[in-house]
Amino acid sequence: MTMDATLSGHLQELRRGTVVVASLTVLREPGYGYSLLETLSAAGFEVEANTLYPLLRRLEAQGLLTSEWNTDEARPRKFYRTTAQGDAIATALREEWARLDKAITDLDPTTGSRK
């Protein structure tokens, strides 16, 4: 396995959880799947539709999102919104992310305070 392939695999693992946190955070305001894809992409999250839509369904099944159909427009769209439980999970995940970021920074002798 080449270094690029190894790095690619590790980056994919690292990003997987961040898409959950980002989606729960963005969907505090109601949004539909395609707009979420655009928002995440603009923020630098690389996620494909065939990854995002199953994730949204899983988060809804876990009670972290709710959804409803908007049929006011010519094309019906399913809007998602973070639930109170989803918001609490997103907050806890962001706090853990910050803690881990600090811990890794502290371990790095070039940037951290570890002696």
Automatic annotation (TrEMBL):
It holds the Pfam family PadR. Residues 26-88 form the Transcription regulator PadR N-terminal domain. This is PadR family transcriptional regulator.
